[in-house]
Structure formats: structure tokens, C-alpha cells
Amino acid sequence: MNLDRAFEEEVHNNIARQQQDEAIQRKSIDWMLAVSRLRYAYNFRWLGRPIIQVPQDMVAMQELIWQVRPDLIVETGIAHGGSLILSASMLALLDYCDAAKEGKSLEPRATRRRVLGIDIDIRKHNRTAIAAHPLSHCIDMIEGSSIEPSVVARVHEASKGYECILVILDSNHTHEHVIAELEAYAPLVSPGSYCIVFDTLIEDMPDDLFADRPWRKGDNPKTAVWEYLRRLKQEGRMAADGMPLTLAPDRSIEHKLLITVAPDGYLRRGDSATSLSKSIGSQA
Ligand SMILES: C[S@@+](CC[C@H](N)C(=O)[O-])C[C@H]1O[C@@H](n2cnc3c(N)ncnc32)[C@H](O)[C@@H]1O
After folding, report:
1. Which of 90, 198, 234, 271 could pair covalently with 170 via S-S, beta carbons 3.0-4.6 A apart?
2. pLDDT tens string 102-134
3. Is 248 in the pocket of ligand 1 (CB under 6 A)?
């Protein structure tokens, strides 16, 4: 067996063991609870800007962006801009690697791929810092509520012409808001790409952790994901490309990470062949 293949199989088996190990899963949740009380997710920066994520999810984002190769990332919730810069840096690297593979040089600022961020309140100092960042040329921002119809329409308009879109939802974490974001933006996700819904972990945490927030157990991104998946299955939704939309949690990611704020939140759209055969199957 080829050595790369053997290593892949070993990792696959490791992850399968983690999936079956309830004790390590319990310890991971307990650890997340303990560090959430310390606001651990606020401790990190991506290329200089504060990012409100845990490092494991940042690594998962790197793996996914490299694997999916989106040319547009749409993300709600900008805050200090760290997650926008993470997306922009990965997209710029994809452009750089494409050019390197073709033996071409890539002029600085001549990158093609883009990230579009939406936030209800882009604070002046954050906007200034993002605009001053060397990767700002890959970034567009819209200020407004992500579920406001005029904002949704602007995002859909801006998404036209891209071949592969990945969506990240990380703004207001109430059930009602996230379900509206899923209705608005999940249809933009391209076949084989992902809609990543952050902070689904709220469902697994005690309510006192969010006493000063409008979200809690029973009212959070995970309950919104469950409801949206139910709607997809029972009512059906069309994607923006005119194909039936199929999404399912890619649990291999949470089994690999163990530490994540997005259990059930890495939603993968079936590739076009899967979508087509499912839609033909559902008509039969
Ligand atoms: C958790 S932070 C985003 C963190 C960021 N994605 C990161 O990883 O660094 C949530 C952000 O959502 C924004 N937000 C809250 N309600 C919103 C809404 N209705 N529409 C868009 N953004 C909203 C807040 O202003 C805040 O900046």
C-alpha cells in the first residue's frame, strides 16, 4: 500500500475511535465549558486581527477551504475582522498556488477570490483596521442586519458569477435569527461546499453561561440547524443554482476535532450527482 494511503487509513481509524469514545467526548465538552467561562475564544489573532474562534475550528476552516476551493466566501458576523482575514488569507493562498502551479507569477493585489462579510455594526476602529490590512483587497463588507431583505438581496446580487461559494454564519445566535440566515444564505452554497454554522455548542452548555445573552438551550444555532434540515427534508428548498438543495452535517469534522463550537454545524451540500440522484429518487 502506498505510504500516503496507509497514513490516511491510520488517521481515519483514529477518528473512528474518537467517534466511539464517549469518555473523551464528555471530557472535551467539560473542557469547552470550563474555558468558555474564561472567554477562551477571545484569546487569538489571525494575521494580526482578533478572531473569536477556538484554534481547532480555525484548523478545520483551513482544511475545508483548501479542500473545497471556493472562489467566494460569504460570512455573517465580522466583529474585529479576524475571521474575514482568515478567509481572505486562505483565498489569496489558493490564488497564489493556482498561479504557481501554472508557472505564472501573481501580481500583488491581483487575486481573484473574495470574501464578503456582513455585520449589523462594523465599528469604526475595526473597519479602519480591516481596510488597512494587506489583505483588504480581497474583502468586501456590508453593514446591516444579515436577515434584512435588502441586505440579503445585495449578497445574492454580489454572489452572481462565482463558481464555488462557501457560507459561514456567526452573527446573532438566536434560533429565529439563524433560521432566517439559513433560509437566506444556505441556498448560495455550491455542490460539495459547506454552510458552517458556528456556536451550535450553546445547546450543549448550561444556560448560566449565556445569562446576559438572548440565546440559550432550546434557542440557538443548533436548534435552527435541526429545524432547517427538517424543512429541507420535508418541504424541500431550491439552491440558487436551480438544483434541489441537500445539506447534511459532516460529523467526521467534529469527531476529528473533539474541541469545536460547531457540533452539527459543518453542513455539507451533496455534490451535483448526489443532489440529482436524490431529486430523481424523490420523484420516483
Ligand atoms: C461572534 S461575533 C463574530 C465573530 C467573527 N466571526 C470572528 O470569528 O471573529 C458576532 C458578530 O455578529 C454581529 N451581529 C449581531 N447581530 C447581527 C445581525 N442581525 N446581522 C449581522 N451581524 C450581526 C455582531 O455585531 C458581532 O460583530
Report:
1. 198
2. 999 988 788 899 999 999 999 999 999 999 999
3. no
Q: How remote is the CA of residue 3 from the centroid of ligand 1, in Å?
A: 43
Taking the whole predicted model, whether its pTM rises above 0.70 is answered as: yes
Cα of 225 vs centre of ligand 1, distance in Å, is: 18
CA atoms within 13 A on the CB side of 67: 12
Query: Do residues 162 and 72 touch, judged by C-beta distance below 8 A?
Result: yes
Reference 179, options 144, 225, 148, 214; nearest CA is: 225
Q: Does the CB atom of residue 146 touch ligand 1 within 6 A?
A: yes
Of 255, 258, 185, give the one whose Cα is nearest residue 224. 185
Question: C-alpha 245: how far from its chain's center?
Answer: 17
Q: Say how far apart CA 178 and CA 228 lie, in whole Å.
A: 9
pLDDT in tens, 66-90: 999 999 999 999 999 999 999 999 9
The answer to whether the CB of 270 falls within 8 A of the CB of 246 is yes
Q: How many CB atoms lie within 10 A of CB 252?
A: 14
**Angle formed at CA 134 by CA 76 and CA 103, multiple of 5 degrees:** 105
